[in-house]
Protein 1
Amino acid sequence: MPSRITTSLLSFFSPLPVLAYSCFRYMLGYLPKEDRVFLMDNARNVVSFRVLLSVLQFQTAVVRGDMDSANALVPALPESEHSHVARFLESQGLKDEALSLTKDPDQKFDLALELGRLDIATELLAEVRREGSGRRVKG
């Protein structure tokens, strides 16, 4: 039998907006090998979303304020998720931690400016200039 699930739980570990979950009423289960959670709405439509357990554990530790546990989990985070996790850290007000984790140069530049880390911002601008690819830093 499916268990009742709340929208707030789903919005916690997914990048989709909270409104996207208002139609889901039941959590059918989670397949760790596939990193997928399966949900069902009132019309019995089943949908699945990718949910990495390592990211969920990291975010849970951050929300609890347990930064020692969160820092211990960083090596388990796939590198492909670092920028996503950095955006989460930024939303939690942990901008220094987000700056050290992000792989996105635009996000890194913005964070560096917000934190007054002009050395990092200048280095990023120099990299763009060296590449000469015509890439522009958003502004």
Protein 2
Amino acid sequence: MTAGDHASSGRESSERPGGAFEFIGPLRDETAPTTAGPLVVRIPRGVTSKQALLAALAQGLRLPDYFGWNWDALEECLRDLSWLSAGREVVIEHAGLPLRGRSRRTYLQVLDAVARRWRERSERRVRIVFRASHERAIKRALAGGRGDGDAESAGNERD
């Protein structure tokens, strides 16, 4: 992914819900960089269950054995990341919007809180990336709206 792939996400203050996320054009099928580069975790389209999402994150992030398989445990681990190499950048890329309704909102709130926390700290960069076409649905979900009436939920997502 190049810097040219990124939409201008600096328009919104990081103080607003979702302001700490990045929104990009269509994702490319790239292989993850070596261990010296960022740890890239790709969440595929079509993830509809909390357990499937947590499993993808646990595997991709190599979450520790004590991970509790719930939202609080996910937030705790994402705020820590001490089991990864010091300073290693973490990128969580979403090919689609996972989950629906309240579960989606909770997941987005966890990611938003974590992204904001890491922006305040300098020892590691954590990036949460979504496709630009999902920005509106994400902001609606974080603002308390349903957030699941987007094109993807209707099964006709466009690139």
Protein 3
Amino acid sequence: MKLHERSLLSQNVKSEQSEVVIKNIFIDEDYEKNFELNETETNRNSELKSWDEEIGSLTSFFNRVELTNNLYNLNAWIKIVNPRLFVESHMLIVKSKNGQKLYKPYLDRLLEFKRSLNNAN
């Protein structure tokens, strides 16, 4: 990175015990511009994509299906002990956090459970 255009910054930093003055902090203006572009790009990529269609499909499916209290092995690492509670809790989370990437595994598990039940029939 070239530091051909730099800004000089002086800043006072205070703490309870002493006052420190920080001088000669160089900021590369190109770096700031790149950072702003990356922030904009990141925000654009993290826009919420609604799961309304999947939620509607899952809601209608689980309303039609009678869930027994059988143990379900969803995959090698997920066992569903109480299917009703699993569906209720996951649906509450998916509906309240609709479109948020952090909560997508809840949606994915519901979809996987639906596929598993469809394949069993």
